[in-house]
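Structure, all two chains, one model.
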Amino acid sequence: MTRMSYKFEIENLNAWFGSKQALSNINIKIKEKAVTAVIGPSGCGKTTFIRCLNRMHEIVPGTRVSGKVLFGGTDIYAEDADPVQIRRKMGMVFQKPNPFPMMSIYDNVAAGLKLNGVRDKKRLDEVVEHSLRMAILWDEVKDDLNKSGASLSGGQQQRLCIARALAVEPEVMLMDEPASALDPIATGKLEVLIRMLANDYTVVIVTHNMQQAARLSDFTAFLYLGELIEYGPTKDLFENPKNELTEKYITGQFG
Amino acid sequence: MDHYTLRKIIDKSMRILIYSALVVGLIPLFSILGQVILKGASSVNISFLTQPSPTVGEAGGGVANAVQGTLATLGLASLIGVPLGLVSGIFLSEYSEAKISSPIRFFNDVLSGFPSIVVGIFAYGLIVRAIGFSVTAAAFALAIIMIPIVTRTTEEAMKLVPATVREAAIALGVPRWRTIVSVVISGAKKGITTGIMLALARIAGESAPVLVTMGYWRWWFAGLNQPAANLALNIYIFAISPFENWQALAWGSALVLVILILGINVVVRAATKEKYK
């Protein structure tokens, strides 16, 4: 496999909250235009891991990161790397839908562009429609673009957040348990959407739901107590786990 | 009596207790408002609203000069106090990891507990001794009273904006300052406005610091470096005077002051109204 087919190459990644180490020595390569799931029990560091990929971990006071995260070959933790520029290349979707409450549906999707200075109305209109279509939300909201984003249902809000992230044309989508606050039907729609996104984007998804990881992902990483226990193609990891801990976890013996 | 019935009875009596407490709490508010309207309304008419304060023995007279002076003083005080309070509040809420935050917060609380006359004397020493009794000196004193209120309420309002909303903006690659300005402040607008209104209402009613910085002035507004009449001081001066028409003016001034604050409140709220609830 050539080097460039990896979107992320992570070397010796460590992360701390104060004096508590949340990630220890993670080495992993994440493939481009595929869905990589990160699974593990609560508190294993999966959320910290995904937040290290777009330098969101460091916005919490008292946190620290060491190691390398090569994104398309460039270390995002290099001295001269600008976290704001880096985050623009990555879309992030959070556990709970978090549309901007004071903004309309339209403005929510346009927010990333507008807040970074884009004023061209025609371009914004195109981006908003395109992003909402990609997020499979356009047909549901096209007549209500001026309504509050918070007026939508939970599942719609989460797809709105995905549209908002897509609008800035990121190269990857980082999703932190995006379905954990959704009902099964909304989750189903979201999973269809994530599969579609993998055609164009590199998707990294954190999930506590093993079935979801098995259904959705091409590769799965299993984290436990801040360490990467096992990583490989999803089918292999679930059918022939190499590590005893992985086997115990996926068979529900702890979690 | 079984547990369920007992619980119902307790629930009901607590409800009654809470409602009665509310009513008792509202009695002073409505009796003051009622009194001000009852006694003030009779003296409010066109000449009352267009004429300046009367001299001793003069019939009639009004509060037009005091409205002028009050608006000028409140305006200038807000011009100084609101931006400073806002910026400090934003700093305390958004940069709370800075070491200097907690001393600032502490001294801000101390400042808000200062007796207003002390603030007045301070302004006297600093401004009145330099440029004389004036609107500027009074506005300076009132601004100092405003700052801690605006700071505190701004900080609280901004902290209520969920961290998840901030993170959403930061994850979009929006710089921190832009996130604060366009996302956090716009989410906290209602609370911030309330804080500014509270501060404005508080200083509109201050008379002690005004007395030592502006003095009493009976004539029209003559510039920011000159003294001006003031509604709160009108109430004080006229109410303790022996003349009946002056006492009526005090009630009228009180009513005008209340309506003025209410009016500013309504206008500002309408102007900063949120699109979505």
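Chain A touches chain B at residues 54, 56, 59, 61-62, 84-92, 94, 96, 98-104, 111-112, 115-116, 148, 150-151, 161, 164-165, 168 (CB under 8 Å).
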